[in-house]
């Protein structure tokens, strides 16, 4: 079997703000169809890493993308007041006016129906009135409109109940498998990392560990990552 196409290679990546060093010496790669999870404590630089990958901030080091690579991004939160006068349809029209593309994207995240059905039951709704799970599906659909090669997810189930979390992760897994996407996701749930990720990058201002979860997430690495004695135990059925 031929080697998967490399989407991104990062070497010796570092970000600092004035004299404050956010992280340094990060090196990793991701290939088509792979899932890379980023784990670490709050303030370890995970979201800053995403901002660097999106080239929203300055960084040092090498970041080499596949030629013509397209990137999708789903933020951790999108706070929209329920009275804010923007509909789901308006939100999609910021990116495309194609009813076919909008329908295809929404169908792919489980919001089924033709465009007329979706317009009546979803697209005419105010964005701020959607539930957490509905909004997350809409954000994912919006992010895949341009058929990206790589999707970045900043804690994709933040603010969603436990049942909804599993649904969203299963959706991401199906979407990634069917479209041969590469995924980089930030997660605090190590069970999810074991279940879905091909590789994990442990970040706490530097790269604590990197590799297959079952190989690198040992007690020593977790203790170094989170400090002190870790309370995490891997479920054997995963």
UniProtKB/TrEMBL annotation:
GO molecular function, one term: ATP binding
Domain ABC transporter: 8-230
Listed name of the protein: ABC transporter domain-containing protein
Similarity comment: Belongs to the ABC transporter superfamily.
Taxonomic placement: Bacteria, Candidatus Yanofskyibacteriota
Species for this entry: Candidatus Yanofskybacteria bacterium RIFCSPHIGHO2_02_FULL_43_15c
Keywords, comma-separated and alphabetical: ATP-binding, Nucleotide-binding, Transport
Record carries keyword Protein biosynthesis: no
SUPFAM superfamilies named among the record's database cross-references: P-loop containing nucleoside triphosphate hydrolases
One Pfam family per UniProt: ABC_tran
Entry keyword annotation includes Ligase: no
């Amino acid at each position: 079997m031929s080697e998967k196409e490399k989407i991104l290679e990062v070497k010796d990546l570092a970000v600092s703000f004035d004299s404050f060093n956010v992280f340094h010496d990060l090196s990793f790669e991701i290939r088509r169809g792979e899932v890379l999870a980023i784990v670490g404590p709050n303030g370890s630089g995970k979201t800053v890493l995403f901002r660097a990958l999106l080239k929203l901030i300055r960084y040092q080091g090498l970041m080499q993308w596949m030629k013509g690579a397209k990137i999708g991004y789903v933020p951790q939160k999108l706070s929209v007041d329920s009275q804010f006068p923007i509909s789901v349809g308006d939100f999609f029209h910021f990116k495309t006016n194609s009813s076919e593309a909008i329908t295809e994207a929404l169908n792919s995240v489980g919001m089924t129906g033709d465009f007329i059905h979706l317009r009546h039951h979803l697209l005419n709704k105010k964005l701020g009135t959607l539930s957490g799970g509905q909004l997350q599906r809409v954000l994912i659909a919006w992010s895949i409109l341009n058929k990206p090669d790589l999707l970045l997810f900043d804690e994709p189930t933040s603010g969603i109940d436990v049942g909804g979390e599993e649904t969203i992760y299963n959706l991401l897994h199906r979407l990634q498998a069917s479209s041969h996407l590469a995924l980089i996701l930030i997660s605090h749930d190590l069970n999810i990392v074991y279940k879905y990720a091909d590789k994990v990058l442990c970040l706490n201002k530097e790269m604590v560990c990197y590799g297959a979860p079952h190989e690198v997430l040992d007690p020593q690495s977790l203790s170094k990552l989170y400090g002190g004695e870790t309370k995490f135990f891997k479920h054997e059925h995963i």
